[in-house]
Write a structure and sequence with these properties.
Two copies of one chain form a homodimer. With 198 residues, the first copy, chain A, is mainly alpha-helical. Chain A is built from ten helices and no strands. Chain A binds a DNA duplex (19 and 19 nucleotides) through loops.
Chain lengths: 198, 198
DNA sequence: ACCTGAACACCGTTCAAGT
DNA sequence: ACCTGAACACCGTTCAAGT
């Protein structure tokens, strides 16, 4: 996890990990089954950081807390979203996660099928939002103005007027990703609430 | 693109592509700058398959058509969603795409900033939904009942009751992914419409 | 019980040498 | 103008041999 956080998930190789641990890559096979096992462990570690102690909360608050908690995990571990939704979700950690979320929704009055739907829609958005990040070359934690300026500079004079307008706007004023996330999350939660009453 | 569709994006290597073309990997460098260039081309090819001839349509219909068109591309090219949102979006094809979408939203009355927000929220969902696919080992195009049965079988007796309930439900009855997609898309579009009137 | 060296079958990329 | 062979610095994984 340290290696992934510091050097990026693409640097998590058996050989590099061995180097960090002062050991040859082949030695790792005494402790894990292979690279897949390693990535599964990494996924579970990230997943366990998402708050699913949601009891006693209104279902909307519970889903909101889960989403915010996921975003905190993504902030610490930028590789987490990609890993979580590219891998099998049949481990115990994944099942526990799925069970808690479905439990909240079903107890709130969603039918089994509707709860599955709501879960899929919510997670599509939560994980999808993270990956919509425009692979910032300056690293994360920026306010996006530098990137907006780059894009603006890359647009040929007079072409793509709407893209240029948006790039110009956010060259001057920072883009608030968290506000955008919560705006979209609110739309979905409100819609789900309306669908709950049929 | 043929190679990616038939053998998966992970099989798209310079060496394998050379093999298919009856040529050594090194020869490819006479035609493209490198693997990055190859993947950019692949992304643009996929992107150009998404319908953005949206003129004359109501903004909601336009966004719906775009979403449906994207899903058709994903059905043909399962690697497309992952490639598109993992790569730089500064090429001409990407800019054209972004410009058309923003144009529809801005002309519909969204402010520059609100249009950027709406775009991000929509694409997070559209691309995110695709990647939420539970890497089906049986290949795609299944109705999910086989997978639901596998998950059900993997759940220890008496544990994860809600997950078990959902898995049981969809062991018998197919899960309609497209319906779920459109349900979520509708929630977001309705929410955006409401936000348009403030 | 754990580590190592060596090997195998892979990667992307460069570059001098060929036609 | 294009292709090739050979090389370099990488991958994941296996396995006999060491301690």
């Amino acid at each position: 996890m340290e290696l992934a956080d510091e050097a990026g998930i693409e640097s998590v190789t058996m050989r590099e990990l061995g180097r960090r641990l002062g050991v040859k890559a082949a030695s790792l096979y005494n402790h894990i089954a292979g690279k897949d096992d390693l990535l599964d462990g990494l996924m579970n570690l990230a997943l366990s950081g998402i708050d699913i102690a949601l009891d006693g909360l209104d279902w909307k608050d519970a889903m909101r807390r889960r989403a915010v908690s996921a975003r905190e995990v993504f902030a610490r571990h930028p590789w987490a979203a990609g890993l979580i939704d590219s891998r099998d979700r049949r481990g115990r950690e994944s099942l526990a996660y799925v069970d808690r979320v479905l439990g909240v929704l079903i107890r709130a009055g969603f039918s089994t099928a509707d709860a599955a739907n709501a879960f899929l829609v919510l997670d599509s958005y939560i994980y999808g939002f993270e990956r919509q990040r425009p692979a910032a070359p300056e690293g994360n934690g920026t306010d996006g103005t530098g990137e907006a300026r780059e894009i603006l500079a890359a647009i040929p004079e007079g072409e793509y007027p709407f893209a240029a307008r948006v790039a110009a706007e956010f060259s001057g004023k920072p883009f608030d990703r968290e506000a955008a996330f919560e705006f979209g999350l609110g739309l979905i939660l409100d819609g789900l609430e309306r669908s709950l009453g049929h």
